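Quick one: C-alpha cells for this chain, please?
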Amino acid sequence: MEPITPQIEQRVQELRQLVEKASYAYYVLDNPMMEDAVYDRLYRELQALESAYPQLLTPESPTQRVGERPAANFTSVRHKVPLYSLENAFNLEEFAAWQERWRRQAPGINEFEYVCELKIDGSSLALTYENGILVRGATRGDGTMGEDITQNVRTIRSIPLRLAADAPTMVEVRGEAFLPLDVFAQSNREREQAGEALFANPRNAAAGTLRQLDSRKVAKRKLDFFAYTLHIPGQEDLAVAPTQWESLELLQKLGFRVNPHRQLCPSVAEVQAYYDRWNTERLSLAYMTDGVVVKINSLKLQAELGFTQKFPRWAVALKYPAEEAPTKVVGVTVQVGRTGALTPVAELQPVQLAGTTVSRASLHNSDRLTQLDLHIGDTVIVRKAGEIIPEVVRVLPELRPAHAQRFQMPSVCPECQQPVIRPTGEAVTRCINSSCPAILRGALIHWASREALDINGLGDKLVLQMVDKKLVQSVADLYELTANSLLSLERMGKKLAEKLIGAIAESKTQPWERVLYGLGIRHVGSVNAQLLTQKFPNVEAIAAASPAQIEAVYGIGPEIAQAVHQWFQLPANQSLIERLQATGIQLASQETAANQAGEKNLPLAGKIFVVTGTLPTLKRDEAKALIQKAGGKVTDSVSAKTNYLVVGEDAGSKLKKAQQLGIAQLTEAQLLEML
C-alpha cells in the first residue's frame, strides 16, 4: 500500500467538498452548479482515491451513500424524543375546536401565531447527528420504537451525511421521505416491463423502499426528503431556535431541504387562506400532499402544552377532502359474495386517483343505484372512500349520451341463473340458492381463512377448481377428500395433495369459536364468535337458544341474534352440523370452569378493548389474542363501555368516535407494557 502524501489527503478533502456542494445544489436547492459529466468525473476520482487509500475512507464520505451489501435485518431502536402522530381536523370547525382545546390548556396566552406547512404524503424518519455526522436514521414505528435503517437513509441525496461546521454537538431531525411523482411513475413503468407488481401509490412505495434490506435498491428508487422538526437534547433556553419558523431556517443552514411553501400565519383567517390556496395548487406539485400541518410557532408554548397520550397539543393536520376525479362508466358487473349478496361494480375508463389508477368502483346496492340513476356511458365522479376503496359519488346527467341505457339489477343470479330476492327492509339483493357456485366458493374460502379453520394451502385458485370439478358441495366435503381425489386438479402432485389433506385434517383441532366463525353466519365476525362461544359452550346450546337469549350476550345486538337463530333453524344447516360432528370438528369449548374463574385474576380482566389501524409489529388478530389471553374483552365497535382503543397507523372513524367519548388511547408499546 502506497503511503498517503499530504497532497493526496488534501485532494480527497477537496473532492468531498466539491461533490457535497454539488449534491446540495442539485438535490436541495434544485439549482445544479455543474454538468452531470463533471460531477461523475469528480465522484469517480474520489472513489478511486478511497479505494487506493482505504484508511482515508470515512462513513460520512459522499461515496458511502450506497451500501455494499444487503443488511440481514433491521434492529429496533428507541427514539430519544417520541415521534408522535398528529391529530386530524377535516374542516375549519374541527380546526377551531382544536384551537379552543389548546387555549384552555394555556388560558393566559392571548397573542400567538401559527406556522403552516404542507403535509407531505410519505414516510416519517428520525435522524440523529453527533458532532455533525449522521449516526442513525430510524423509521417512526409506533412513535416510541422504530427500526434502524441508517444504511438506507444514507442513500437519500437530500439528507446530508455531514452538517455545517457550526452544528450543535447533538441534533435530532425529523422529516418526511417521499417519492416524487415522476420517479413513482417511472418506477411503475419499469416494474410493469419487468412483470413485477406495481406500487399502489407514492406513499406505500416510499415506505416499502425504506424497508428494503439491500440499500443499492433503495438508491435506485431516488427518494427525496423534507426536514420539518429540529430537536437539540438538553437545550433549556431555546436560544438556538426559539420558534418553529427559526427552526426551519436553521435546518436549511445545516444543509437540509425544507419545503419552501410554508407560511407564518398570525390569524386563523390566514390559516384558512393558506389551506384554501393549496387545495388547488397542490395538484401541480411534484409530490403528493394530503393536507396542511398547523403548528404553534413558539417552541416555549409548545413545551408548556406538551402531549396527550398520542398527539402533540400544539399541532394539528388540517386534511383535504378525499380526492375526486371524473371518468366514464363503460359497463357494470355484478359480483356474488359468500352470503349470496349481489354487489354491482362500475367498470370505468381508467383514471388517476390519489396516486393510483382506478378502473373499478363499488356501487354498493340497489338503493344506491336508484339514488345515482346510473346509465351505461354516464360520466361520474369517483373518489376513494377512506383513501382506500374507490366509489362512485355522483353522476353528471348533463353529460349523458343520448341513447344511454339505465342499469338495473338482474332478476337472476349471474352465477347460477336462479331467481334472486330482496328481503324486506334490506337494501341488498341476494341469491338464496345454497348450491350457487359463488356462495359455495365464498363459504370454502372463508372456512379455510386464517381467522377461521386456517387450512394452509387451500387458496382461492384451488377452491375454484374444486367447485368447478364438483369435488366438494359443502365445507363438510373437504373432510372426505383423499390425496388421490385431488390429483385431477391442475399443478397438483402427490406430495402437495398429501400435504393439503394433512392440513385439512389438522384443522379439526381448531377451537369452537373458530368453527363458529368459519360457518359464515351473517353478521358473525371473529370477535362476535368468541363472545357467543363464551356464553354457549357447545353447538347444541347455541342451536337451542332463542333470539332473546342470544341477544343477552354482551356485544350482540338484535340483528346478529336473529341471524344466528335463523341459521340454526334451517334443515340444510342442521344437516351440515351433523356431518361436521361426524368428522371430529371441535363443536364444543375446551375451557373448564376453573379456567374461567382464573380469568378474574388476569391483568386485563373486566376491561373492554377495540383495536384499530395498522400496528407496528403485531397483526390485529395477534393483538386481540394477547388481550383476550390476559382476560380482556375485544369488540369491533367503540361505545361508552369501551375502556381502551389500541391505535395504529391509518386509524379511521373508530379513533374519531373514541376521541368524542373521551376513551383512553393506547399505542402498541403501551398495550404491551400493560400486558
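Confidence is low (pLDDT under 50) at residues 66-71, 592-597.
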